[in-house]
Every structure is written in C-alpha cells, then in structure tokens.
Amino acid sequence: MKLNRYDNEKEKINIKEEETNNQEKEEEEDEENYNYNEDNHNKKMINGREHTREKENIKLLKNKIYYYKIFSVTLVILTILIILIIFLKPSKKENKEINNLISLGNNQTNEGNENTNQNIEDNIDTLKFNRIKEELNNIYNNNGEINIIKFYEEKINQNTYSLRDISGFNNIHINIGFNEKDIDSVIIHISSILYNSIKTTFLHIHMMGADTFTYESLVKLKNMIYKINNNTEIIVYNASQALKDFKIREDSISKFSKEYAKLYAFKKLSNIQKIIFLDADDCIVKKDLLDLYNLDMNDIYGRGISEIPSIKHQMDWLDNYLYDKSHYINGGVILINLELCQKDDFYNKAIELNNNEFYLKTEEPAQDILNVLMRKKIEFFHPRYNKINYYENIEDKDDETKWYPWVTETLKLSEKNNHFYTKEDLVEADNDPVIIHYSWEKQLNKVVKKYEEDKIFYAKLVEVSLNI
What we know:
Blueprint: H1 2-87, H2 92-107, H3 113-139, E1 149-152, E2 161-162, E3 170-178, H4 183-195, E4 201-209, H5 215-228, E5 232-238, H6 240-245, H7 253-263, H8 265-268, E6 269-270, E7 275-278, E8 283-285, H9 290-293, E9 302-304, H10 309-312, E10 333-336, H11 338-343, H12 346-361, H13 365-373, E11 378-380, H14 405-416, H15 423-431, E12 435-437, H16 439-444, H17 449-466
Parallel strand pairs: 1-5, 2-6, 3-4, 3-7, 4-5, 9-11
Antiparallel strand pairs: 7-10, 8-12, 9-10
Helix pairs in contact: 2-3, 3-5, 4-5, 4-17, 5-17, 12-13
C-alpha cells in the first residue's frame, strides 16, 4: 500500500517535471521565434531605408537635370534678347523721346493709367514709322522736303492732311480704302500704278485703313517705292473713325468697311482740288493716269463710267433718292472734285444717307451714296478709264446680242441722251485700256486668265522689291 503511494507520488513528480520541461522548451522556441522575427523586421527596416534613400537620390538627380534644362533655356533666351536689343537698338533721339513718353506716363498716373499707357504705345509706334520716313528721306535726298511715306494716326494728328503739289511734276492724288488682311493684294495693285507712271508724274496715294496697319506693311510699301518708283508719296490714314460714324450691317463689315473708309477722304484731306477714288482690290492700272486726272471738272462733282443700277441689282427704294438713273456711274474708278464735295459737306451728308436706310439695303454702299450726292453734277468719262468687260465669253466680243444686259441698256440710254458712250468706245476701251476693272470676271469666274497673268507679273515685281 505504501509502495503504491510512493509510486504515485513519483509519477506525479515526473509528470510535473515533464510539464516544466515542456514549458521551458516552448519558452525557448518562443524566444527563438521572437529573435527571428526581430531580425527580419530589422532587415526590412534597413532595406526600406536603403530603398527610400535610393528613391531620394533618383529624385535629386531628376531635379538637377530639370534645373539644368531651365538654366540652359534661360541662357539661350537671354542671349537672343541681348542680340535683338543690340540689333534693334533705337537711336539716341528715339531713346530720349521714348523716355520722355514714359516719364510723362509716370507723371500722369493719377489721371488714368490705362489711357496713358495706350498713348505711350501709340507714340512709340509712331516713332517706328518716323524711322522709316527718315530712312526714305535719306535715300531720296533730292526730294528731301517731301515725306515720302507717312502713317497719319488719328489719335496723334487730329488735324486734316494738307499737301502742296510738288513743283516740277504733274501731281496726281489717288484715294484707296483697304483692310489690313488684304494689304498684300492691295500692294500688288498699287504696284501697277507705280510701274506705269511716267517720270514727270508725282503720285500721292492716300490709303484709308479700315482697321489696323502694321509696321511690316509699311516696310513693304517703302521697299516697293524704292524699287519701282520713287516719285511717289504714300500716306496711310487710320480711318477707323469712319466705321464709327457709318452704321454697317453685322454680316457685311468685312465686305463694306473699306468702302466706308474710302469716304473718310471727304473729312481728312484738304487743299486738294481733285482726286481719283480707286478700288485697289480689283483694278489694275495699265497706263499713266495723267490723262484721266486732267479731265475737266469745272462745276461737277464727279466723272465715271456709265452703269445702270437696276440691272445689276434691284433697288426700287433707290427711286426715292435717285429719279434719273441715266447718270448713274460705277464706283470702281471715279474722278472726284474733292474741293467742291467738301464745300457741300459730303462727309456728313453721306453719314445721314447711310444711317437712315442705305446700310440696311444697299449692296454698293459707297457707290450708291456717291451717286445720290452727286446726282445733279455727274458726267461720264471714256470707258477705257474703267474698262469692264461687256461680254461673258471672249468669242461673244463682236456679238452685241450676247453682251451683258447692263451694257445693252446703258448703250440705249447713251443713244437716247446723245452721250458719247457707243459700241466703238467699248471696242477702243478693250484694245487700249488705262485701267482694267476685273470685278465682273471675278464674280462670273470667267475670262480671268488675263487678270491672273497681270497679277502674277506685279506680284513678282513686288516680291523683287521686298528682297532689296
């Protein structure tokens, strides 16, 4: 019995020792696992820091490359600017004038910075144009008293333009309306005037700008004069005021603005007895204009080629203003008695007519307005001064039954009123034109080959002049 108890006690002790050993073993395993996990954690921490450091190094390298690129580009831009400043450096006189303008602007800050800054820009632009004018005067020192080319800025020069005729020359004044977007085409047509002018003629070309006018365009005009004909003065006017005075339909601004700008001559020019109103976008001059300019203008407003308005476009409403359409003339080329028209206040009368209803109804604003204002004092000139084709196809030239209706009706009126405008006159104009007006060909897209040939010739002439 005692033996059994001893055995039981021993067995309990053994079981307890075994549990203790197992516990110690588990603790050892736990410790080993802990150490292993801690080692792995430390390794991950080290790897993570190394990876982060590597990313930072890459980012730092990218930033260095980026700043190096910025530095390089900046250096190139500064170099270019320095070269441009050296190359385009204004004269001391211009610098002084520009600094005076800037000082003036600073002194007038409290009076309105916006207006002052605009005035500074306008005056600096004028200095650029004056530089071209001075260059031209140096080239043509024999005409040193003449401003060969001007930019007549309305904001700067509020007074009207007045010029005495140049002694020793036959002086001809020409008025042209234009939009800047069409300036290249206008220059090509103007070159035909310069090219065909004789040496004893001096041309004064007044260009009425409906919108902007760039320095580059002025340089083109200067080079054209230098290359083709230096007996020429070109004056460019800012005629934007005309577009404020005359109402224009929104859908027709681009089409009509140059026509209204042309009427600005009645307000802006002075001391000029007569002037040729010319459509520079579709008229090419083939001969000197002196014979046209010397036509008698005593006690009449204007001369032009006969045209019947109702044939070209129906305008019954025009009967309220123009009772006798037998003296209606085409507006592409008109010799105007400017002195008499200004005396009778044509500019303000034209505004009144236009803004009443003309701007809403007419498809020929300047032409219709001028015909109404001049209706009692209009005469014709020979069709060779405004040669418009009277036939659609070249083979119909000798067949009167196939001529344009407006020509046939005009001939009937000419015969009825004993005018000189006859079939023979048309043939003479066809064979020996002074000015060719290509409007009909452009509208019909026919008989344009000759026009394109002429344009190509004068375009090449201008191209050569721009490469001087």
